[in-house]
Task: structure prediction
Amino acid sequence: MTLLSGKIAIVTGASAGIGYATAKLFAREGAHVVVGARRQPELTALVAEITEAGGSAVALAGDVKDEAFAKALVDLATSKFGGLDIALNNAGTLGELGVSVPDLALSKWDTTLATSLTSAFLGAKYQIPAMLKRGGGSLIFTSSFVGYTVGFPQTAPYAASKAGLIGLTQALAAEYGPQKIRVNALLPGGTDTPMGRTFANTPETLAFVKGLHALKRLAQPEEIAKSALYLASDLSSFTTGAALLADGGVSINRT
Result:
């Protein structure tokens, strides 16, 4: 028996990296998956890959900063598959790194929070009512150890947006726990993704980032997807309001 047999899931930020790997894993575990991101060609390729492997998926391209897109994803899950049980709100951005707050343009701050935090609020706004109609569900936000257990200089917008997701997680978990909706945040460590490579873009930087972790390496997206699967499935049936570290020990490492 597959872990998500018959479940219906939304995954945002699905065109690459953690979202791409998680959508494939959810489908392999029996879920009907609605994948969302800005880039249609990558989504089309993902759906084809899932379908060829015997899974079930549909795609919708759009911008997670747009409230209409959040609603459209839920509408698609409902019209195509009959409802919604799981949502991984994974889309985000590194934003403007390497800039101190006094030099940071308000527009850059706003864009980062809109992409990484407000988009999660918009997702939850439409996902929660759909889950309530199914008698409960699992709502997941991709946060980060940055802004939670570790502070880095010149990362204020990113850190604030990711920390905000944990507050959102806790508030929603307390509010909707009685109605059988579990809400958790997933906090990956350094992961070998296209977004991650924009930061670790030289051999020296890559070695530095690997060295921050107790495991002295980066995660593969498929490894983080397994933690998302845990939160999505009944394996985590008594887990809610958690900030789940899947960070390779970066939060505790001092070596």
Remarks:
- The chain is about 45% helix and 15% strand.
- The domain at 8-192+220-246 is CATH 3.40.50.720 (Rossmann fold).
